[in-house]
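Here is one such protein, fold included:

. . .
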Amino acid sequence: MMKEDPAARLGEELKRRGWTIAVAESCTAGGLGKRITDVPGASSYFLGGIIAYHNSVKERFLAVPSSTVSRFGAVSEETAKAMASGCREAFEGDIAIAITGIAGPGGGTADKPVGLVYISIAGEGGVACERFRFDGDRSAVRRSAVEAALNMALLHLERTCP
């Protein structure tokens, strides 16, 4: 039996509720927005996204305080939460998903290794964030982060408005 695509399920759930979604992506560089819009009819619920690869973009377009980035780093729970909140506000959507992480192959440290990803969801009920550590090369880390974000969004919808 074939497993249903989480992007299609997410779209169905958003349409059923009449909700909209927006995304803020760093390490996935548009991969989440692509997966969401691969679903026919996504224009009825997908507002858009911001690829905030550089910290200045996180600050300028997502209202992430520079103090948050300097104190906790671009790859942190605090930055991911601020990205999601800023994205939701910028797009005036019902929910927003933010992803920030280290896809590799370089850029990792002992404290923040390659494969470390934070995914945050902002909605009416507040802001949630999860920390992940994905294995594999750059492409595998990115794919895993996108799939995890889709599944987190589905769980968020189930919890906030069944």
